[in-house]
């Protein structure tokens, strides 16, 4: 669908958490928490879906939902005080080599 061809959809899901340890891979009603997000994301008709994570298990789950796992989130970007913008700048450098935009 043309509507989504200029967009990239990104899910940030780091391994650590201050509040609930490994919250993204906790099961709720027989699904990992992160799967609920992946299911919604898969309703969008595009293949430009990426996971930004330092957790191999989250990446494995993302693969099941056909979400691109090529990007590696560096440990220095996986801290609880790391800003979203720092992650997005780092991802932008990665994606700039992969995709060309108009």
Record field, number of beta strands: 4
Return residue spans where pLDDT drops below 50 for at least 5 consecutive residues. none
Shape: globular
Total of helices = 3
- Reading the helices and strands in chain order gives EEEHEHH
DSSP strand content? 5-15%
Average pLDDT level: 86
Strand order of the largest sheet: 1-4
Distance from first to last alpha carbon = 16 Å
Q: Report the major sheet.
A: 2 strands, parallel
Helix content class:
25-40%
Give the class from helix and strand content and strand pairing: alpha+beta
Radius of gyration: 14 Å
Describe the structure.
The structure is a single chain. The chain is α+β, with helices and mostly antiparallel strands. Helices cover 30% and strands 12% of the residues. The two termini are 16 Å apart.
Task: Give a quick precis of the structure.
The chain is an alpha+beta fold.
Summary keywords:
102 residues, 30% helix, alpha+beta, globular
List the helices and strands and how they pair.
Blueprint: E1 9-12, E2 27-28, E3 31-32, H1 33-41, E4 49-52, H2 56-64, H3 84-96
Parallel strand pairs: 1-4
Antiparallel strand pairs: 2-3
């Amino acid at each position: 669908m043309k509507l989504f061809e200029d967009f990239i959809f990104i899910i940030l899901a780091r391994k650590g958490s201050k509040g609930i340890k490994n919250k993204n891979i906790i099961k709720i009603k027989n699904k990992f928490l992160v799967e609920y997000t992946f299911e919604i994301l898969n309703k969008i008709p595009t293949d430009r879906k990426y996971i930004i994570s330092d957790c191999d298990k989250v990446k494995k789950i993302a693969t099941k939902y056909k979400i691109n796992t090529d990007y590696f989130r560096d440990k220095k970007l996986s801290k609880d005080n790391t800003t979203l913008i720092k992650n997005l700048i780092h991802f932008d450098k990665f994606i700039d080599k992969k995709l060309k935009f108009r």
